[in-house]
Design a protein that fits this description.
By secondary structure, the protein is an alpha/beta fold. The chain contains 23 helices and 11 strands. The strands form 2 sheets. A 7-stranded mixed beta sheet has the order 1-2-10-7-8-9-11, sandwiched between helices. It has a 4-stranded parallel beta sheet with strand order 5-4-3-6. Helix 13 crosses helix 14 and helix 14 packs across helix 18. The longest helix has 22 residues. The radius of gyration is 21 Å and the shape is globular. The model has no long low-confidence stretch (mean pLDDT 94).
Length: 487
């Protein structure tokens, strides 16, 4: 559960700092429906604030419903991109929520908010004397450092040294300290080791571990889940059906949207993916890969595995081919000739590398279940190509300039030719096998109990009780804002 025990001495410090900096904290309710619930004075401030500005007003842009503008935007509908059959090769409608229009350009700023704010508004974290530590394989530590900066507290960002140059360049502008751990996306153990070292040697450090913090799960259940429901219902015609949602695992926070959607659409499916080069869920495997931002070799504590219907192992070559096809000028010329509209082509930069993996999973799901033009699959584009320009340049240097012939080969081989290999529809005991992998990371290494591990599987109220906590946290946020006098 999310601990809401109040520590009054630290809470006083947090309230005074928020008052001094003019920090008003949004509620989950406001993030779900910002146009209706955001105070008018905050909207006025946002009209003169850039999307990435280090300004506390941007806490009210932690939502899927920002106007797609770099500055001065307010709110609209859920930002989505629908991928046409001319690109995907399947008749099913694939609709993706777009993370680019969050502050920092990625939706992880919401997950980090979900982890930080419950501790801030209860006084469990004192921003005047403690440092927020953000262990991550990419965007989470960027979002965490950004939120910490808005709230006026110091942060320590931890991420693998093999992440893209763009991530590090921007992170240096907001994080107080950056620790680059050995390896790449799949080296989560090395991140845990660094966290253990910090815990043992730096008493001022407070760890916000996205892989175990239920605030991560709750934010996606409440905010991402409701945004997906709204997007799906807006797109559905009278004969359409919602087939399911697919997301890469990473910290597994986003998988919580599947819990929400199954309550609204009980017959829908939840698919969770990882890299074929590191098939932990699919094959209990290990390895390294190039799908930046999704950590592997473990099952995150916050993943409700019992609610997962399929697992996918996506070849990272598919993702790298897709980002070249969709972003290189010659690739775009090829897509235009294939019938993809200029409007869609102009928006394909909204899909980063992990977004490409999500779209690949959606294509596989559509083929596996033989879905039709009346079926809708929803997914997310966690971030955009804004984070990966250096990766395109690296591929140009390694493979040469991109041509329409290469584009045709990539489209046919990696997209249209995609099969239903390297995926599995899970039985009860397949799910239990994956769930049991949590024991080796979380009970043996990270101090969790086998009793709680069993409760995640056997107790029907375990996840439901977490999902009910948004209203309780909102009450604490309202109380905090009232004490600052800024409400």
């Amino acid at each position: 559960m999310i601990d809401l025990t109040v520590h009054e001495d630290k809470l006083k410090n947090a309230v005074e700092l928020a008052k001094k900096r003019g920090v008003l904290i949004p509620t989950f309710k406001q993030m779900k429906d910002p146009d209706k619930n955001t105070p008018e004075k905050m909207k006025e401030k946002l009209r003169n604030t850039g999307l990435w500005d280090v300004d506390p007003a941007n806490l009210f842009r932690i939502t899927w419903k920002n106007e797609p503008r770099k500055t001065g935007g307010l709110y609209g509908g859920v930002n989505t991109l629908e991928f046409p059959k001319e690109l995907t090769g399947v008749p099913a409608r694939i609709i993706a929520l777009c993370g680019k229009w969050f502050p920092t350009g990625a939706h992880k700023v919401g997950a980090s908010f979900g982890c930080l704010v419950p501790r801030l508004v209860t006084g469990q974290f004192d921003p005047t004397c403690q440092k927020a530590v953000w262990p991550s394989t990419g965007n989470y530590c960027r979002g965490g450092a950004y939120n910490a900066q808005l709230l006026g507290c110091e942060s320590i960002a931890i991420l693998p040294q093999g992440m893209s140059r763009e991530r590090f360049d921007w992170l240096r502008t907001v994080a107080g300290e950056i620790i680059a751990t050995p390896g790449t996306e799949s080296n989560v153990k090395e991140i845990y080791d660094e966290v253990a070292r910090i815990r043992a040697t730096r008493p001022e450090a407070v760890i916000f571990n996205q892989f175990e913090e239920m605030g991560n799960h709750l934010w996606h259940y409440t905010v991402t889940g409701s945004a997906m429901e709204e997007a799906v219902k807006a797109a559905m015609g009278p004969k359409d059906r919602f087939a399911g949602v697919v997301v890469t695992s990473g910290s597994a926070g986003t998988t919580a949207c599947g819990d929400y959607l199954k309550e609204v659409f009980p017959h829908s499916k939840v698919g969770v993916g990882e890299a074929l080069q590191c098939p932990t869920l699919y094959l209990n495997g290990f390895g390294e890969h190039r799908i930046e931002g999704i950590g592997d070799k473990h099952v995150p504590w916050v993943h409700n595995v019992k609610n997962t219907d399929l697992v996918f192992a996506i070849d990272d070559n598919i993702c790298m081919a897709m980002i070249r096809l969709c972003n290189e000028p010659e690739g775009q010329k090829y897509l235009r000739a294939a019938g993809v509209s200029d409007d869609v082509i102009s928006r394909l930069q909204l899909m980063g590398i992990s977004g490409a993996a999500n779209v690949a999973m959606a294509i596989k799901m559509a083929k596996y279940y033989e879905l039709t033009e009346n079926d809708i699959i929803v997914t997310v584009l966690t971030d955009s190509m804004e984070m990966y320009g250096s990766r395109l340049q690296e591929m140009r240097e390694k493979y040469g300039e991109y041509t329409q012939t290469r584009a045709a080969v990539d489209h046919q081989r990696y997209v249209l030719g995609m099969g239903v290999d390297c995926m599995q529809e899970l039985s009860y005991y397949d799910r239990k096998r994956i769930h049991n992998l949590k024991y080796y990371t979380w009970v043996e290494q990270q101090g969790k109990t086998s009793e709680e591990l069993n409760a995640q599987w056997y107790d029907p109220d375990y996840w439901t009780n977490i999902h009910k906590m948004a209203d309780k946290i909102d009450e604490k946020i309202d109380e905090f804002n009232a004490r600052t006098g800024l409400a």
